[in-house]
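Hey,

The postdoc asked me to send both predictions to you directly instead of through the lab channel. I've kept everything plain text so nothing gets mangled by the mail client. Protein one:
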Amino acid sequence: MGILSASQTFVGLCLLLRPRLSLAEDFLVGYGNRPYVPICGNSCLQAFKPYLLNCSDLEAAKKPFDPLSPATAPSCYAKDTPFLTSVAWCVNTKCAADDAGISELEEWWEKTVTGSRLPPPKWTYSVALDNVDPRPPAYQLSIKDSNLSRTSVVVETTYQSHWNGMTALYDEYSAESKYGIILFVIAVGLPIVLSFLRFSPFIETIFDRLKIYLARPLLPHPIPFLGTPPLLLPTLYLLLFTALNILLTALSIQPRQPNAFFPTLYKEVINSILVRTGAFSFVLLPILTLFSARNNPLLWASNWSHTTFMVLHRWVGRLFMVHVVVHSILALRIYSFFENTDWWYWGVVGTVLTVAMVLGGGVYVRESAYQVFLATHVVLAVLVIVGGWYHLLGWYAYLGRRIERGNTLGYEIWLYFAVGVWVFDRAVRVGRMLVVGGRRAKVTELEGSEYLRVDVPGVRWGAEPGRHVFVHFPTVRWWLPWENHPFSVVPTCVLRGRSESGSPGDEEKNGATAVTRAVLPRDSGAGVTLFIRKAKGMTAHLKAQDGLLTFLDGPYKSCGSTRDILRCDRVLLIAGGIGITGVLPWAHSGHWNVKLAWSVREGASTLVDAVDLSGVLIKEIKVGSRFNIAELLAEEESAGWCRVGVVVCGPRGLCDDARSAVAVAGKRRKTLFELQTDVFSW
C-alpha cells in the first residue's frame, strides 16, 4: 500500500516538471495513460488497416512500408465508407463483451480511427454503425484479400492476433511503469527509512551491534579501475538494488501467441526484456542526477553523507550502463532492419556515449585529470540525455505518436525529472553563492614555506562541525570557469592558524596534494581562511595578491548526523596532515570530553606551528610518524568509557586503518564506538 501511494505521489511530482499538464496521456502507462484502450477497438482498427482502399496510393503500396509515408493517408481513411463501416461493425461486436461505453468509443473513434486527429472522420462511430447494411455484413474477409471495397466482417484470426499483441504490450508497458516507480521509490526511500529506523530504541540497539561490520568495506583492498569498494551498508544497498533490477527485468513477462507484432514466442520475450531494460535506463537517470547533486534532498532527509551518495552514483551508473548495453544488444538481435532510421542512430549515439561516460569516470581518470573528467562527464551526461530524447522522438514517430499531441508512452517523464533535478541543484548552487556574494580574498605567501594563506572576509557560518564549502576562484584559471575545490568549514574563533592542502591519495606516505581544507584564523575576524600548499592544478597559479575574486558555495554537510558522535561519553579526534581542519570544529562543539591525536609528515612543522590548539585540553601530536589507532582505541577501552565517538579526517590509508581498528575493537564489546570518517579522495 505504501509503495502504491508513493508511486501516485511520484507521478504527480514528475508532471509538475512538464511543460504541459492538460492531457491524461501525459502520465505513465497504467497511471492515467491508456494507449491501447479500448483494446477491442484498436484491434479492429489494426486488423483492417493493412487493406488497400479505393483512395489508397497504389505506387506507395508497392514500396517497403514507411510509417511516415503510408499508402493510405488519414484523409483517405476519413472519407472511405467501407473502411468506416467495417471497423464500426467490428467494434460493435467485439467491444460488447468489454463493457466499453458509447461515449468512450465515440471519443476513441474521433481521435484514432483515421490514424490522426486531423482530418476527423466524416462520420461518428454511431453514424458509421447506422450505415452498416446489411447487418451483419454479407462479406467475410479472408487472409487472401488485399483490398477493402465493401463493408466486411473481420478475419477472426487476424483480430485475435492483434488483440493478443496489444494486450501483451499494454500489460508490458503497465508493468514497466509500476516496476520503474518501485525502483525509484526504493532507491530514494531506503536511505530515509533506514535513517528513521535508527531512532527506534529496539532497532537502535541492534544497529549499535551491527556498526562494527557496517563501518568497513566489504573488500579490504581497492578494486582495479573501480577504486575503493563502498562500505558494507552501501554495498548491501547496491546488492539489493541490483538484485531488484534483475528481478523486475524478468518479472511478469506474459507473452501471448498468436501475436500480430511478434510471430514467435522467442521474439516476443526478447522484445519484453528489450523495452524493459530501456525503460529502466530512463528510470535510473533521475536517480543518478539526484545522488550526484550537492543539494540532494536525501542529504537533509537521511543521515547518509554526500560521499556515500557519490559512491552510490558511480555504482548505479554502472548498472545504468548495463541496462543500456543489454537494450542495444537485444535491439540488434530482433530490430536490425531499423538500422537506417534516425531513432536507431540516436540510440547508437546514446549507447556509445553512455559507455564512454561510465568507463571514462574511473578512479585513474579522476585522479590524473579531475577537471578534465568533470567537464567531459557533464558534457557526456547532457549528450546522453539528448540522445535519449531524440531516440524517443523517432520511436514515437514510428509508432504514430507525438509528444506535442500528448499520446506518448510516458518514458520522457523520467527525462524531465532528471533534467529538473539537475537544474534545481545548479540553481541552488548559484543561489548559495549569491547569498554570500562575491568576496575579495587576500592571498599571502608564507615566508620560507610552500604554503599560501587565502583570507576570505565577512563570512559568518557558525561552529557546527562536519561541514565544508566549495570555493571558486574564477580569475585564477579563467579557461576553467567550473573549477572549484572543497574546504572544511571552521569558525574564526576556533583557529588563528594556517593549513595546507590535503591529498587525494595518502599524503603522509607520498606527499601528493590536490584537495584543500579551510580554516578560519582567530585574529582575522569573521571569514574563511584557506591554507594551501602549492601543487599542480589551480594551486600552482595562485600568487600573493589583494582582492582575488572569490565565490563560496556552501556550507554543506561533510558527514551524516553529528548526533551519534556528540552523545558519546568521549570524542576521539584523529587527524592526518591537513585533516586537522576537518576535526577541529568537533573539538569546539561543546562536548565536555574531547581528545585530539594529530599526525603530520616530516617537514610540516610550519603547519603545526600555525594552528592554535590551546582550546583543546587533551591532545597529542606526532611529526613524521603515524599513531597506532588500535592502541588509541585500547586506551579508550581501558579508561572505561561506555561509548566513544571517533572522528577521522585524513588520507585514505588513515581512514581505512581507522575503520579496521574500530571494527576489531568493536568485536570485543567492551566499549561501543561511533565512527565518522572524512577521507581525501576523488
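Protein two:
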Amino acid sequence: MNREGRYTDRPWRKSRLAARILLRKEAERMTPRDRRLAKILSQDAEVTNRLIQQGLYFLGIGTRKHEFDRQLGLVER
C-alpha cells in the first residue's frame, strides 16, 4: 500500500505523536519513554503548536479542546 498522502509528511507524523503524548498526560498515563519523546519533540522546529492542535482534532479531541487545555494548564481556569 502506498503511504503517500496528506497525513504522511514528517512534521505531521511528529505532531500527531506529540498530540498522543498530550492525551496520555491528560489521562495521567505518561511513561518515561513518553517524557523523553516529549522533550525531543518540544525542541523540534518541525513540530508546531498549530500542527499539534490539528493532531488533537484528528485524534478526536473535538469539543473537549477547551477543557483539555485547562486541565493541562495551558489556559487560565
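Summary for protein two, as requested: The chain has one domain: 10-71.

Thanks,
C.
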